Amino acid sequence: MVSSTHEAMHRIFQQDPGLFARAARVIGAPFADTVTSTPLSTDLTENHPLERRIDTLLRINATRSDEYLLAVEAQGKKDPDKPANWNYYLAYLYAKYRIPPVLVVVCHDRSTAAWAAQQVDIGPSAWPSVTLRPLVLGPDNVPVVTTPEKVADDLPMTVLSAVLHRRDPEIKAILEAMAPVLRDLQKHDEETAEIFIELTQQGLDRSPAADLWRSLVAVDTSFFTSSLAEELRDEGRAQGLAKGMAEGKAEAILRLLERRGIQVPDDVRAYVLTRDDLNLLDTWFDRAITATSASEVFAGTE
Which domain of life is it from (predicted)? Predict the structure, then answer.
């Protein structure tokens, strides 16, 4: 089954095709800035029963008059069949369009990224006929973006950063930097803001960071009008969630622990819901991301 993270890791390039060239230059691949791009069919099936589809396929025109096909694959785990499939995709695309193809593989898992980046020779060891050389984007080469200024400079790169670093300690800083930038963007470009809010939520999937993102959007539901914000507003009405930043943070802490399967005693739950110290609530939330018990989260605060 295709996960929401898988979808976000390649759909972000559909939203901003120029993101590829910027990300590639970060890791030393000198691709020129994109001028125009054209979505192409992702169906690479020939006239036989075997169906082959790539995740995202774009025809790119760049600033140095370069033209190439950008084939984006989101890869969540190691798959020994993939190198042969990827080689087929590239050969098929070149035969069909006569335009040089580039394969970029996006991985949120470090070991999968290291596996995908390996050069694969196809043919006899004495004389390989084809060499597969994907360009891989993963947590170790996509930068962590943690300031609103840098977020505003390249919002699509920040979304990619959040998705790929969703299980890293830096994710809290990434998401907290994104929220005010998206709030400002929503004021003059509501549609684009909604796309990036939803792509971020989709990319975070069921990780603990997804609850943090929901809590950040929940705090600003008066600004955000995305479907995620509407969902949060509906939840607030249905469950009687308290208004106010402190109460919202308390609810987010308890929800995060619940989603992680950590039991919180009723008396502790009641105690948390009465706190209004934002610094204390932030401390609890940070602990809740990695703690293995409620006592670890609330220790030393009685």
Answer: Bacteria
Euclidean distance between the first and final Cα of the chain, in Å? 45
Rounded Cα distance between 58 and 234, Å, is 37
Residue 229: predicted pLDDT: 54
* Number of other residues whose CB lies within 10 A of the CB of residue 8: 26
Least confident of 66-70, 83-87, 132-136, 184-188: 184-188
- pLDDT over threshold 90, residue 114: yes
Which of 125, 124, 105 is CA-nearest to residue 115?
A: 105
Strands (E), 117-243: 120-122, 130-132, 135-137
Q: For residue 9, which of 205, 146, 136, 164 has the smallest C-alpha distance?
A: 164
Domain 4-137: assigned CATH number: 3.40.1350
pLDDT band at 162 (very low <50, low <70, confident <90, very high): very high
The residue to which tokens 């590639």 are assigned: 24
**Tokens read off for 14:** 């559909």
What's the full length of the chain, in residues? Answer: 302
pLDDT of the residue at 170: 93
Per domain, the residue ranges of the chain are 4-137
The residue among 204, 295, 300, 203 whose CA lies nearest residue 257 is: 295
CA torsion sign for 257, 262, 268, 270 is positive
pLDDT for 239 equals: 46
Q: How confident is the model at residue 289 (pLDDT cuts 50, 70, 90)?
A: confident
- The DSSP code sequence of 20-78 is HHHHHHHTT--PPPEEEEEE---B---SSS---B-SEEEEEEETTS-EEEEEEEE--S-
Q: Report the pLDDT value the prediction gives residue 76, as an integer from 0 to 100.
A: 92
